[in-house]
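Changelog-adjacent note: as of this version, every example in the card shows the full chain rather than a window. The one below runs 238 residues end to end.
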Amino acid sequence: MRVISYNLRKHKAAIELDALAQTPDLDVLCLQEVISSQLPTEIGELHLADSTKNNRLGLAVYYRRDRYEHRASQSFELKKSLHDRLFTPTPERLVGTHLVDRKTNEDMIVASFHAAPLTALNSLRRNQIKAAHEMLHTLGSGSPILMVGDYNYPMFKDGLTQRVKQTGYDLSLSDRTTYTNYKFFRGHFDFVTSQGFTIEGVETLRRGVSDHLPILVTASYGTESKHRSTMSAEPLAS
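Full-length structure tokens:
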């Protein structure tokens, strides 16, 4: 499975979506900071699964309909930051989609996530991440989960990695930084947390008009994931 996550910077980078959708073998496109009313139903071969409705700047998930069957989608509100209380009374910061692989009949949950801005504490973002993981299980208990997006967590990620691992998730960063605009807050803002997936790579793509760079996640699941995990655990031949 190949998934792109992209923060559109107040929808400005929407002009780049047609080009992104041409990424070879792209299965899912997860977006943040979109204007839902301006999103098309189709982008290339990708179909809109769901988007938030209440946020001024929301989230969306697109998927490749010829490969995956869409079972259900849902938007979720998360704990409010001060920013939310002032500007976003109903902060839908998570959209999850339950997909079924038409070839293998395997279920999975893919989600677009946008944590509270940097004006909030890391403790609030950790609360949001933990709550998001728990909420996604309601879409398909026991299904592999892949959550990508703007985590707004440029510092102390080692601690976050340990915390999500304690709840059964892995945190994966891309090969290069994804945000460089702030003088003091640069680094990996956009990454992936997962459960039941084998993450084979996370690549930072070329910068466009957004202040974030898109990331491309390559992952395997189900039988293929178990096979790859077994192979990677075997000792190298001498």
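Structural remarks: Residues 96 and 136 are 6 Å apart (CA to CA).
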